[in-house]
C-alpha cells in the first residue's frame, strides 16, 4: 500500500505558510507556480485601511483601483427638513432689496395732517349761513306772529318779552334740528359738509379708517348732535329764562369752537364725543 506524500514543511524556524495578501487595488493573486492550495477555500482577509504618513494629505487611489478605505471627506450638510414641510423644496431666499411680505395691515389709511383751525372756522361760518338762513327766516316769521299788537296795553312790555323768549326758544330748536339733519347727512355720505368741502377738510373716525367714504351713521349724527345740540339747549333755556339763561349754553359753543387750538390732536369737543378727527383732504 502506498501513502500520500506528506505536506511540505516550512523552512526551518519559519511559521506556517501564509498566503500573501493581494496588493492595494490589485485583483486576487494566483497561487505560486506548482504550489499547493491551502486546505479548504481561503477567504481573503479584509483590506486594512491605509494610515497616511505624518503630514501627508489624503491618499489617492491607484489607477483602476477601488477607492481607499481611508478617512472620507464628510458630505456637505443638508438643510434640515422643517417639521411638516414638503420634501424636496428648498427654502426660498428673499432677494436683495425685495419687498417684504404683506403682514397684517395697519388700521386704516395713513394719517393725513390735521386741518388748520382757520380753515375749520371758515367751514363753520359757511355751514352757519347754510343752516342759519332758513332758521332765521323761521324765527322771523314766528316773532312777527307772536308779538303783541296792542301797544296801549299796560302789560305790553311783559308781553313782548314773553313773545321774544318764546320765538327765540322755538327758533333755536328749529335751528338745531336743521343743523343735525344737514350735517349728519353730509358726514355720513361724504365725510364733509359744504363748508368743509370749501376749505378741503374731511372728518374721519379716530385712527383715519374710512377716509373719503363717509362716516358711519351713528358717528356722523353723534358728532352733529354734539355741535348743534347746544342750540337746542339754548332753546330750552330761552323758554325758561329768556336770552340771559340761554347764554349759558353759548359758553359751550364758544369752547367747542376754540378747543382745537390747544388740543394735542386738534380735536374739538364734538370730535372727542364722536371719536373723530378733522384732517386735510389735499
UniProtKB/TrEMBL annotation:
Organism superkingdom: Bacteria
Topology of this chain in the membrane: Multi-pass membrane protein
Gene Ontology terms: cellular component: plasma membrane
Keyword presence, Transmembrane helix: yes
Compositionally biased intervals (Gly residues): 98-108
Subcellular location: Cell membrane
Biased composition regions of type Pro residues, renumbered to the chain: 1-10
Chain segments carrying region Disordered: 1-113
Pfam family, one: RDD
Transmembrane recorded as keyword: yes
Keywords in alphabetical order: Cell membrane, Membrane, Transmembrane, Transmembrane helix
Predominant subcellular localization, coarse grouping: membrane
Residue ranges of the TM segments: 129-148, 160-182, 194-213, 225-255
Extent of Low complexity compositional bias: 51-63, 81-97
Domain RDD: 115-275
Database matches in PANTHER family: MEMBRANE PROTEIN, PROLINE-RICH ANTIGEN HOMOLOG-RELATED
Name of the protein this chain belongs to: RDD family protein
